[in-house]
Amino acid sequence: MTAVAPVPVVMVGRATRLRKRFLRRPMAVLGLVLVVLFLLLAIFGPLLTPDPLAQELTSAFASPSAHHLLGTDDLGRDELARLAAGARVSLLAGVLSTALAMVVGVPIGLASGYFRGWIDPIVMRLNDAVLAFPFLIFAVGFAAIFGASLRNVVIALSIGLLPTIVRIARGEALVLREQDFIGGAVADGARSRTIMFRYLLPNSLNTLIVQATVAIPIGIIGEAVLSFLGLGVQPPNPSWGVMLTSAQQFLVQAPQLAIYPGALIAIATLGFNLLGDGLRDVLDPKDRR
Amino acid sequence: MSALLEVDHLAVTFDTEDGPVLAVKDMSFTLNPGEILALVGESGCGKSVTAMSIPALLPTNGVTRRGAVRLSGRELTTLAERDLEALRGKEISVVFQEPMTSLNPAYTVGKQIAEVIQRHQGLNRREALDQAVELLVKVGIPDARRRCASYPHQLSGGMRQRVMIAMAVACDPKVLIADEPTTALDVTIQAGVLEVIRTLCRELGTAVVLITHDLGVVAEVADRVVVMYAGRAVEQASVRSLFAAPQHPYTLGLMGALPANALRSGSRRLAEIPGLVPAPVDDPDECQFAPRCGRATSECRAARPQSREIRDEHWVACYHPGHEEDGDG
Amino acid sequence: MGVFILRRVLSSVVVLFLCSVAVFIGVRALPGDPALNMAGESASPQVLAAIRHQFGLDKPVPVQYVDYVTQVAHGNFGISTVDQIPVSEILVQRIPVTLELAFLAIVVGLLIGVPAGVVSAVRRGKLADYVSNAFGLIGLSVPHFWLGLLAIWAFAVHLHWLPASGFVGLAEDPVENLRRMVLPALVLGTGLSAVLMRQTRSSLLGQLSEDYVRTARAKGLSHGAQVRHALRNSLTTVTTVLGLQLGALISGAVVTEQIFVIPGFGKLTVDAVTQRNYPVIEGVIIVTVFGYVLANLLVDLAYAWLNPRVRVAGAA
């Protein structure tokens, strides 16, 4: 593009410039606010609310009151307490599955893209094979073999997230390995491990942060879906998915029981997606896929 | 001689996220019928933006354009997009720098040439395709009828640029804007492509605005030259006058690393002038070349030098013009 | 073109091979001894050995793998442990239902997603863009099983417009079938249309800033004609994305069928897991992988057809 003006050199710190750019995007800021609210609910909510498992069968389907701020569910349990506990489960599932996928996937992807050779096609074929599995069918099989639990949900989700992360990390390494400073490091006799973790990793960080922000909501929805199908968190333990399963039977009497948890999933996911979009614009303006 | 195209105090500003960029600050020049005018300068001096402003091909968002552009006396800057569309490709057409990306990869080259003919001459598809074949012959593409059915990726860079030229001259335009038409090409085929532009335009009477950073190209094909620096014209003259007696220190700098034999050896690198092109963020009232200029005095930093006619039809914006290499200049 | 197809087919075979190995190993990792399961706790060692021999469980593992692949290739997936019906028969019954749902959802996704993406890109920064973007983000963030519950609540419980659940075969009563498929298809298609909208938008925006669009503009083509130039190149991306979304679509179908009680492939899967019906689970996974690989192959061919750089082998 020749008609595009060159970007001027602006003498401001990088962090300040990034913050300014971020704050200029109302949607990104809204995303950040939603994410922070979600984090507050997940971290502090369970400390401030009653026991989410305590049943009070005489006051089932109670309306909101000073005692139960959002009323109670079919077994008379405090709805707000269950929502807060569910938020914690969602946060755990989203963050842990993403973290696990990054810890495993980033080194694989970087190595695959950096070394190329015979390793790269094998990794990419395996990657395609994992991608070829519709995730839910895989998760169903996984739950069938290893049993339904939050831990297994996290493992299954991280395997589901893995191919995308490997692919992104590989793409970064492919671009970076052609850059001069990597060539310089190689010429200076730097070891491959040093190059990967001292050069490739820090320089892919922006892209990986964006990717993590987008992966967390996938984990959140994944946990909710699996728990909804009875393949994740088991009742009576609260999880937004579990709460929706039981709310399904009471759509006529108490639609709010279906609305609250679903709305929270949507809000948390929306928050992370908006934040991810904003971070991508700010950190990774080249819009690579 | 009345001018075909007049660019009058043109200024172009881009609004970017990090503030406005003054790409073109104040440009005035004229183009005579049938003439080849070269716009020369380092990258970032605003020459492409100036050229793209003529048919209003700059992005529509975040661009402010001031000043006037007149084609045969008709003001273009105030035209509605619909009227500009009727003008583009017919009266003013463009050959871009990147033949690799300037053609649509999904359509055959024949269709892409025929498209402009159908648009402006009201011919049907068949007739337009026949004309496209004739045009491909004119720009020197062998086996033109078969080539019409080729996709851009099947052609070499030089061939694609010839296709671009065929497309540009399809409707006998009055003005052809050629934006670095040979920069992306292999040195060995540059001359051929330039030759096609020159002979075709002479034949059709088309005037050319040739944007280049390559003084070798200028010497070869241009009639007149405008040298640009930091969004302004610093020197304007006929090719003969400019090469015989360059006046502006910047022009001298550009020529400095252009030894006479460089033209023959085909090495056409732009001269290395110490220092950097200033960031186009502000427009102080001073000579913007002063920080890089050996002749700069306090006068240069006090007020911007105005363009004046130093010899017949030879204009320069400098307090200390002259083609003698003086002192440490 | 020929080389391209050959390469894609070969790579599909490789993926199929890897997946079949994974399923084979996965099934053998299942808890419990299959011979013991069949013969019962009290079976004598002789009986167990006989069963192992009968089912080839005493052969070396690679031989077992070959036997297994041969069986599968002949459409023999075993017998459902719950109702003693051959798994292949159950699959033949259930798959068309899910295919119909998925097809309708793709139609919904394409009809909403692609036009919304185009409008959004063309009217960038205008009201239509904001509306499309909001739709895209919400469609991406709202889990569709919740959307399904809301839809049932709104249209079935409240408004009584459409039945909440249940299924009528397409062959039995096409009108009633469609009436009952409207909500599930809309619910399943919404997520897809959101993804397609976002991809169409970003791909078209990318293409619109390409040099060749500037060329089209310089030729005097109208804005609409410029968009047509760009769209032609965006559609290749959209096809790829659609292919990548097929997996998500199957996943979505599992949940959607569960909510609307549609006796399709997805409901079969979930039921099989809750009933620990291993032959069915195995069959479901194999069929899924096979179908998915096949679908991807078709998408690649469509991609090649849309993209002359692949279709016409370049000789400059």
Q: Could you walk me through the main structural features you see in this protein, from its secondary elements to its overall organization?
A:
- The complex is a heterotrimer of chains A (289), B (329) and C (316).
- By secondary structure, chain A is mostly helical.
- Chain A contains ten helices and no strands.
- The longest helix of chain A has 37 residues, at 79-115.
- The two termini of chain A are 21 Å apart.
- In chain B, the strands form two sheets. Chain B has an eight-stranded mixed β-sheet, sandwiched between helices. A four-stranded antiparallel β-sheet of chain B has the order 2-1-4-5, with helices on one face.
- The two termini of chain B are 37 Å apart.
- In chain B, a hairpin with a 2-residue loop joins strand 11 (308-311) and strand 12.
- Chain B has 329 residues and is of the alpha/beta class.
- The radius of gyration of chain B is 20 Å and the shape is globular.
- Chain C has 316 residues and is mainly α.
- Chain C is built from 13 helices and no strands.
- Chain C has helices spanning 2-28, 34-39, 45-54, 61-73, 87-122, 127-141, 144-158, 174-208, 211-218, 223-260, 265-274, 278-306, 308-311.
- In chain C, helix 5 packs antiparallel against helix 6, helix 5 (87-122) packs across helix 8 (174-208) and helix 5 (87-122) runs antiparallel to helix 10 (223-260).
- Chain C is flat.
- Chain C starts with a helix and ends in a 5-residue tail after the last helix.
Secondary structure elements and pairings:
The complex is a heterotrimer of chains A (289), B (329) and C (316).
Chain A: H1 14-23, H2 26-48, H3 79-115, H4 119-132, H5 135-146, H6 150-176, H7 180-187, H8 192-228, H9 240-248, H10 256-283
Helix pairs in contact in A: 2-3, 2-10, 3-4, 3-6, 3-8, 3-10, 4-6, 5-6, 6-8, 8-9, 8-10, 9-10
Chain B: E1 5-16, E2 19-31, E3 36-40, H1 47-53, E4 63-71, E5 74-75, H2 81-87, E6 92-95, H3 109-121, H4 125-138, H5 144-147, H6 157-169, E7 175-179, H7 187-204, E8 207-212, H8 215-221, E9 224-229, E10 232-238, H9 239-244, H10 249-256, H11 260-265, H12 298-302, E11 308-311, E12 314-316
Parallel strand pairs in B: 3-8, 3-9, 6-7, 7-8
Antiparallel strand pairs in B: 1-2, 1-4, 4-5, 9-10, 10-12, 11-12
Chain C: H1 2-28, H2 34-39, H3 45-54, H4 61-73, H5 87-122, H6 127-141, H7 144-158, H8 174-208, H9 211-218, H10 223-260, H11 265-274, H12 278-306, H13 308-311
Helix pairs in contact in C: 1-12, 5-6, 5-8, 5-10, 6-8, 7-8, 7-10, 8-10, 9-10, 10-11, 10-12, 11-12
